[in-house]
Amino acid sequence: MSLSRGCDSLAQTQRTRLQHRRARINQQINKEMRMRTGAENLFRATRNHKVKETVALELSYVNSNLQLLKEELEELNSCVEVYQNDSDSVSVPMIPLGLKETKELDWASPLKAVIKDHYNEEEDSYKEELKALVDLRQAMRAPSRNKAGLELLTEYYSQLHFLDNRFFSPSNNLGLFFHWYDSLTGVPSHQRALAFEKGSVLFNIGALHTQIAARQDRTTLQGVDCAIEAFQKASGTAPILPFHLGEGGLVL
C-alpha cells in the first residue's frame, strides 16, 4: 500500500504549526508561573497593606494570563474535535468557570506517622497505597477537560472522605497545609482544615462541568442536551459546598 494514501501534507503542515504554537504557549506559561511564585512570596513576606494590595492585583493579572494561556493550549490539544464540527450556525457563547490551582502535597510522610503511632502498624506495609494517593493528588492538579478528568477529581474527592474518617480528628490535622489559588483573583490561600481541600476539589468538579458544557455543539439537539446536563451537574455542587466548608466560612 502506498504511504502517500495515508498522508495528508496539509494536515502535516497544520500539526507543525500547532507544535510551534504549543511550544510558545508553554514558554509563556513557565514565565507566568515564575512571576506568580515571586509575587506569592512577596505577598507573604510583606506587612505593608498597600504593597499587599498591589501584589494581590498583580497576582490577579498573572492568574488571568495563565488561565487564558492554558485555555488556548487546551484548545490546541483538542483541535481535532473542533475541526470535526462543521456547523456554520451562530450560537450564544457560554462562559465556563476556571479551575482552582494548587501546590504539590506530600500525603505520605504524615500518614506514615499516624499508621505507626496510632494504629501500631508498619508504615512500609502501605507503601504502595500511599504512593497511589500521592500520585492521584498530583494527577488531579491538571485534569483533562472531559469525562476522564471528572472521574479523576471525583476519585480523589472520595478518597478525602476516607482519610477524614480514619486520619483526621479535631485534635489532629496531621500538620499539613493545603495550598490553593483563588480561581478568579489568583490570590493564594492555605489552611490546615481538610474541609478546605474538599471544598476546593468540589469547586473544581463543578467548574469542570461548566467547561464541558461550554464545549458542546449546541447547534444540535444532542449537544444542547449534553450542555444542559453538564450545567445542571455543575449547579448541583453549589449546595454541597457550604456543607463541607461549615459555618466557619472557609475561603475558596
TrEMBL record:
Keywords: Coiled coil
UniProt entry tagged with the keyword Ubl conjugation: no
Example GO biological process: signal transduction
InterPro entries: BRO1_dom (IPR004328), BRO1_sf (IPR038499), HR1_rho-bd (IPR011072), HR1_rpt_sf (IPR036274), RHPN1_2 (IPR047138)
Domain REM-1 stretches: 8-82
BRO1 domain sequence ranges: 93-252
Name of protein: Rhophilin-1-like
Organism: Crotalus adamanteus
